[in-house]
Amino acid sequence: MRVGLEDGAVTRDEPTVGRGTLLLADISGYTAFLRAVADAHAADMAAGTFVPAAYSLLTNLLGGIVDKVAPPFVLSKVEGDAVFAFASDNELRGRALLDCVTACYAEYRARVEEADRLMPCACDACRSISGLELKFVVHHGEFVVQSVAGHVELLGPEVTVSHLLLKNHVAELIGRRGYALVTDRASGELDVPLDDALAITEQYEHYEPVRANVFTLS
User: Domain total for the chain?
Assistant: First the structure.
């Protein structure tokens, strides 16, 4: 398999090794929100003819994230409440990487405000959509790219670390706010300025401690 990371194209043949930036954008509180909406409208949904507006509005939030990051990133897949994408080192470096994340966050917040305004249901569950936050994980390293069921999949230890970093202790530093967690490996490889960033170290089973920096977005 050959991966044309330089121009954002992906050609699916045989598995190959790639190297670059890994990006995860994850909506915090998504699962709890859907559970609350489903519970609040259980009777109507059981009839099989009613789908709460919250579902389509959430789809719009995910679509906005994809629109802002791909391009310059290549979309790997949407993973429930998260968008996973990757890019070559030539695509975004330094301040441009942070600007991309900041612009995506601004678009997300604008869509959340619009979703809150357009929400036709006044129940507490549906109205809580305004509390959904967005967090980013930016990592860097090697990965294997291969086609699985017609979709481009990224595999490897650094991909696993990226996903593990979604479960972190950032809230203990900044509370429940939007943020970007950029690993030391990513900031070093991509010359990301660390002005005003907060240092953090996360530990996961089977991995060395992961050192990173947190940028608040809200």
Answer: 1
